[in-house]
Write a structure and sequence with these properties.
The chain is α+β, with helices and mostly antiparallel strands. The chain folds into two domains: 218 residues, no CATH class; 188 residues, Nucleotide cyclase, GGDEF domain (Alpha-Beta Plaits, 2-Layer Sandwich). It contains 14 helices and eight strands. Strands 1, 2, 3, 4, 5, 6, 7 and 8 form an eight-stranded mixed sheet that branches. Strand 4 and strand 5 form a beta hairpin. Helix 3 packs antiparallel against helix 4. The longest helix has 47 residues.
């Protein structure tokens, strides 16, 4: 009988957000830095847009309308840049200058489009074309990189280009077509206002990027703190119970479940306690419980309680376990085997344990008062399991299970069990049919 895979929460660790601006290539198994992931996403967007433009311009080129050739070449260069950038990032190579290069390319792209529009359609084309609109979009893209300096750099570069283009290269608007348009004449004061507006967008982008990064840092701190509390909580409560508490799924009045209950204790523990110092007894108990809890975790059981040297384990709560009886029997066998290894290695000399298993309906849920509660299982099923374990020493078998457990097992597993007979349990008026794994000693 093989154990199921361990629960994913068994080896849980906080995954911190990668710092931006790492300025180095990541190793093949390392997660990309945060700045690299942002740049990669924007590069995908730039690659997709430029590819779409190339596809749309191809039929026009085929018709030999060559006046759009500069735009086509510009788009092709943009496509090549973003494709190369993506290739470098995919090969785990990223440098902070790549973000600045991309933002500079995007700003220059707007100026080149304005230049093309001016020489094709005059001042009206330059003032109303896509290039002007592109400046604002490039500042927004720089902000999405969450680099405050990048956003300010983009705003400054775009505003400087507006001043140079519309203040020097494009003469003061004398284009009669501007009359009556919803466009201010390209006088120098108006150009300064436009440049200041774009630079203001860069400042806003810088402030926005700073605010987002602060929120991100706080979210990271909260996630780390929550994981720390979760890990500390898991030392005292099972991982499955922790998950249910955090999710708010525990019902205050409990719920009825069909579960398999496993009790175990150490044979001769009283004699052991009397012959050793308390510190040594505590050390041995911690060693024993550490190994037993690991076995229980592998079989997806939940340790409900430590009682002296005893252990109460439930299979099927709080999470439903379809094969709870099989898991309980598998865990019992592994626990006995692990105890044998501890004894044979000398880590826990003379260690022997007994295990009793019963299956039935129980009420599981929080028990306690307003100041303190614990997750518990209540009902006759739990009491019967404890009393079955009490017969282990009397019957000389390390593992005992009831007919209810056997009935829930598959036929091949039933064949590995020996009937031990019907035995009376203390406090019960009728006998209970018991079984034991064959060959267990």
């Amino acid at each position: 009988m093989s154990a199921p895979a361990a629960s994913p929460s068994a080896e849980r660790a906080a995954a911190p957000i990668a710092a931006s601006g790492a300025g180095r290539g990541a190793s093949p198994g390392e997660k990309l830095p945060f700045a690299a992931r942002l740049e990669r996403n924007l590069a995908y967007g730039g690659l997709g847009i430029s590819a779409l433009v190339l596809i749309l311009f191809t039929p026009v080129l085929l018709e030999r309308r060559w006046y759009i050739t500069p735009t086509f070449i510009l788009t092709l260069c943009t496509f090549v840049w973003y494709g190369g950038e993506l290739l470098l990032i995919r090969r785990r190579f990223f440098r902070p200058w790549m973000g600045y290069a991309s933002t500079a390319l995007e700003a220059v792209l707007g100026s080149i489009i304005c230049w093309i529009d001016y020489h094709r359609d005059g001042a009206l084309g330059a003032a109303t074309g896509a290039g002007i609109l592109l400046y604002g979009l490039t500042v927004a893209a720089a902000t999405l990189r969450l680099g405050p300096r990048l956003a300010l750099f983009e705003g400054g570069l775009a505003s400087a280009q507006i001043l140079v283009l519309f203040g020097y290269f494009f003469p003061t608007a004398a284009d009669p077509r501007l009359a009556g348009q919803f466009v201010l004449p390209a006088t120098f004061p108006v150009t300064v206002i436009k440049a200041a507006y774009v630079f203001g967008l860069g400042v806003i982008g810088m402030v926005g990027a700073l605010a987002i990064r602060r929120l991100q840092a706080r979210a990271k701190e909260r996630a780390i703190e929550r994981e720390r509390v979760r890990n500390l909580f898991s030392l005292y409560v099972s991982d499955q119970v922790v998950e249910q508490v955090i999710a708010g799924n525990l019902k205050p009045d409990g719920e009825r479940r069909v579960v398999s209950v496993l009790f175990s204790d150490i044979r001769g523990f009283t004699t052991l306690s009397e012959s050793r110092k308390p510190e040594e007894v505590l050390r041995l108990l911690n060693l024993y419980f550490d190994r037993m809890c690991a076995v229980v975790e592998r079989w997806q059981g939940v340790v409900f309680k430590f009682v002296g040297d005893g252990l109460l384990v439930v299979f099927g709560a709080p999470n439903v376990l379809p094969d709870d009886a099989r898991a309980a029997l598998g865990a019992a066998r592994d626990m006995v085997a692990e105890a044998g290894r501890l004894a044979a290695s000398g880590e826990f000399p003379g260690l022997k344990i007994g295990v009793g298993i019963h299956r039935g309906e129980a009420v599981v849920g929080p028990v306690g008062g307003a100041l303190r509660q614990e997750y518990a299982a209540i009902g006759a099923t739990v009491t019967t399991g404890a009393r079955v374990e009490g017969l282990v020493k009397t019957l000389g078998r390390p593992i005992l299970l009831t007919a209810d457990v056997r009935a829930a097992l598959d036929e091949p597993e039933r064949a590995t069990l020996d009937a031990v007979g019907v035995h009376a349990l203390p406090g019960r008026g009728v006998g209970v049919e018991l079984y034991a794994p064959r060959g267990a000693a």
